[in-house]
Amino acid sequence: MRWRKMIGLLLLCVTLIAITACGSKEAGPAQSNGDTNTENSSEGDNAALRDVKVVLDWTPNTNHTGLYAAVDQGFYEAEGLNVEIVQPGAGGADTMVASNEVPFGVSYQESVTQARTQGVPLVSIAAVIQHNTSGFAAPTDRNIKSPKDFEGKTYGGWGSPVEEAVMQSIMEGEGADVSKVKNINMGDADFFTAVKRDIDFAWIFYAWTGIEAELRGEPIDMLYVKDYSEALDYYTPVLVTNETTIQNDPELVKAFMKATSEGYQYAIDHPEDAANILIKAVPDLDKDLVLASQKWLSPKYTDDAPRWGEQKQEVWQNYTDWMYSKKLLDEQIDVSKAYTNDFLPQ
């Protein structure tokens, strides 16, 4: 499954949200999984509860388990909320949240940063995972053991300037030349199809595609981008809302985040049970993959942070400075306005 397409196209769409919707998924590392249907998350008589939607960034996976656990375990209901988990429309999750179509969504630090340079008031309210679990992956027979080994190889991506900038950053540290990498667009092909067809490596999230490679018995070499640059250890994914919701309905944000935090803590404490909740909600998912992915990912939700969801200003500043240095931003942003920890439970 391809998580996100070209960031530039997304942001063009986002700037038009006040007038109309536009079409694009969000750009980023690839995952390998087929589309699934949107899952409603609540049943029965909820007349006394407030209906709330949260939109995913892509099809359901273990990045989202805490949301499904919060529904299944009644954490949202305890806060007076009837939460429905939905998939993004044509304009993408960021567009839906920024335009007040839905109050909450799943996004990425890079998307929020880009959006705010365009005056789009997205705000990150929690880091789903503390450290970046994405990186460049290749079948072991390609002998890609370091960024220098990218030279002379073919990279499959989605055509975003971010990809080459990241690749350039980690290659330069190894004295390598990014111009010696051939770049092609993978289109709709997943990682496993593409590496058998016409590419040597791609950018993936290990928690999904890397785990799937293990289950397939197709070993890969994984080069995590955070291991080569502190600036690239950014938050991906994050939960977002918009400034209007924060200003006009802070109690809603507080209630949503309390229950969501409980959902992710449940997934941390009970990975197998949480995996089964996700499988029950989205039966089209591969059960073995969900279970293995959840066991790998659950400890990484909080990792070395004092609580789930915590965000650090230095992480936001480091990545913003890096994006600006690579000319991926037209201007710097005030990172203190791009995220908040204020709605995380103490």
UniProtKB/TrEMBL annotation:
Residues 1-20 form the signal peptide. Residues 61-274 form the SsuA/THI5-like domain. It holds the Pfam family NMT1. Gene3D superfamilies: Periplasmic binding protein-like II. Residues 25-46 are annotated as: Disordered. Keywords: Signal. InterPro entries: NMT1/THI5, SsuA/THI5. It comes from the Bacteria. GO terms for biological process: thiamine biosynthetic process. Residues 30-44 have a biased composition (Polar residues). PANTHER family: 4-AMINO-5-HYDROXYMETHYL-2-METHYLPYRIMIDINE PHOSPHATE SYNTHASE THI11-RELATED, THIAMINE BIOSYNTHESIS PROTEIN HI_0357-RELATED. This is ABC-type nitrate/sulfonate/bicarbonate transport system substrate-binding protein. It comes from Paenibacillus amylolyticus. The lineage of its organism: Bacteria, Bacillati, Bacillota, Bacilli, Bacillales.
